[in-house]
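User: quick one, fold this
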Amino acid sequence: MADAYVAAGSNVRPRASLRQALRLLGREFPGLEASRAFANAAVGFRGDDFINLVIRFPADLPTEALIERLKAVERASGRPPGAPKWGPRTLDLDLLLHGGFVGHAAGKSLPHPDLLTRACVLGPLAELAPALAHPVAGERMDLLWERFDRKAHPLRPVSLDEPEE
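Assistant:
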């Protein structure tokens, strides 16, 4: 069975939205594991800080079906279909990796292009699966993260159990 790695982020009621996403996905995909949650500044627009984490779970679905399932969880968490890419959101679920799949599925590229350029994706993924090799770069996630410019993209660990600010 192929493991799915999913970046989850929110800047609208982020703790509640991420807890709900973990519950919904955990019901459907037993064996779900998550990295710690991290706060970081919004990228691409001015807005409240995001809270991000990465989730891993076994997913014996075609990649297209998995992407559609993630979109359904986004909608169940209050994100309207067709919401702008660069703006506040209750939930953003991006499939980063699905087994060894490399290519395009449901209009998405895998591995996800942000995986190597965004601290909020690479940092939590390296924490969750340090020995996992990037299917194109061929390097381990922990080594990619070690070389990443963390000062330019600071992450702050946060708890999802804290009340919303």
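User: anything notable?
Assistant: The mean pLDDT is 92.
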